[in-house]
Amino acid sequence: NDDVDVYKLDVPKDGYLNVHCSSTLRDFGLVIDCLDPKVSYEQYDIPVGTSVYKFIVPKGTYYLSFKRDGYNGKYSFSTSLSGLKTTKVRAVKNLAGKKAKVSWSKKTEVDGYQVEVALNKKFTKGKKSKTLAIDYYTHPKNHIFKKLKKGKTYYARVRTYKLVNGTKCYSD
User: CA angle 82-143-169, nearest 5°?
Assistant: First the structure.
């Protein structure tokens, strides 16, 4: 209808969708929808002037609907995508009994970590993966992989994730 403008936006990877709005409208709102994965955000009562909103979004096709009450003003917007907080492997320690302990830097504002080890740099051979969630009582900073091959070199990597409606959005 005349009071709603809809824009299609393809988001190529998980991250934060930053929406910069500039408006002279008094009754102005934004709705962001995605069908796969099912994600929806609503931001009403956007004030006159410039505002910036930040939404966590998984990779997918999104529809941005700008709702206004009449034509008593103008608006403009721009979008940008920024990545989720990343972390780095701090240390990998060889333990007795075909085990390795992978440690990483603790990050705030994340819901968990995915840590992997593999026999090659591309992580296609002998890969083992573990997803560790953060809860009220625990905040993991390391993981011990067991049943590794003796005498082999393993590569390790770790990434963070945030949950959005049950979907994990991973950092680089």
Answer: 25
